[in-house]
Amino acid sequence: MTIMQIFAFASTAVLHIFLARKLGPAEYGVAGIIISALVVVRAGVFGSAMMGTSKLIAARPECVTSCIAISKRAYAGIAAFIALQFFFFAPQFASYLRDPSLTGYIRLLPIAVAPLGAYVLLLSILTGLKDFRSTMLVGILFQILKLTLIVGMVLMGLGVPSLIFGFGLASLLAFLIFRKRAKLPRGTEALPLLDYLKTMIGVFIALTLAIVLRYANFWNLKRIVSDSIVVGHYTAASQLALIPALIFSGFVVALWPAVSGESGASDITVAREHIAKSFKYLLLALLPFTAILAALPDYTILMAYGKQYLPASRVLPLLLVAIAVLATQSLIMSACLALGKTWPIVATLLVAIVGIVLIGNVIIPRYGILGAAAAEVTGFSLSGLVFGALTFRTFGRFTSFAQGLKICASSVLLFIVVHSFAFLGRGIVLVVPIAFGLYLLTVRLLGVLDDNEIREGLALARVFIANANKTLRATFRRMANSQSPVDTRR
To answer: What are the tens digits of pLDDT across the range 7-26?
Structure first.
């Protein structure tokens, strides 16, 4: 799953850098709003349905065929509802954001909704079956197609609508090429509709709210400031802040089906082991990347976007902290949802969304994008504390406080070292590898990693490189032979 997330990170980063430089801050700010709507549809609405579907398939393998049939109807209904909302209420959405020019773009969004639903349904089936290789191939193909199509259409002069057409066409093509992977013989017992709804409704609401929480502050900034250039600067910083979390979000996706099957009381220990390992490795991987980017905000913005986006460097460190908190919170939330702890999460997310908007209403008018970043840190931190308490109540002590503190201290040391040499400008690229090596040595000396874990890590790195190479070859080969029959024996 991490391979797929790295490709997602790479394609998303390249896309945003291209859009920011090609469109300029004002139009890039508009593009940020449209992208946020597409992400809410794909990762929020359909992504939440994906988690529910994959949970059912993982927990009830004997009902896979029935679950897929019900899911097709459910996804079609959701797609139709969302498309109608975008088309008929586009003026109201644009009015809330205080930008009438958004109306036409919002009315185009229904074009991408149904293809995104089909693509995410395919991912949910493959994830629930724990066919991570196929999930990875589909995800990588989607990212390659999305990047290629959007860049091509922007260069042709289509502007912001290229995003809508690119997302829709990439989703449709990825689905059509890989759809036969979901048609292999599966369990044929009937799944009661009530069981499907019980699983889906809570998860659907919770994960949709989780994505809304991610963008609530962004939309609030647009509503209050009503300046597309400022929104463009904030979008640039937000996308760079997402880099560490996006790379390692595969921990969250892979944890879901692993924990879903461990719902009995006697299996809580097994689930706790999954969570503890995922949480530890997420911190080890996420925090050093966060520290490096936070130590070099000016250099990072200049290298990625250019001088016209330099005001974004003021908020990049704060947003990196906020997204790191959100990433760990997502891991915890995924584990709790997998075991059915849905409604406490829904209540927490609702309170967090209202809180982050209220805080933003107070400080954004006074401090601008700096206030928006502070509101994001505050809101995510408060919801993270509540999720931590819920996880402790559900699983008990699943990780060592001392171990987490050692990882955080090592990351702070990495931040200090890199920040101290920031004056070197481009020469910092020579310091970062040395500083990262110091970080690895520190966590080793502090006992966070033992010799067996290091050997396993090196072995996994070799496998990762080999699999990445094999995946690239397989993806491009499948793209070239998309009209040929799929070999379903693999």
So the answer is: 777 788 888 899 999 998 88
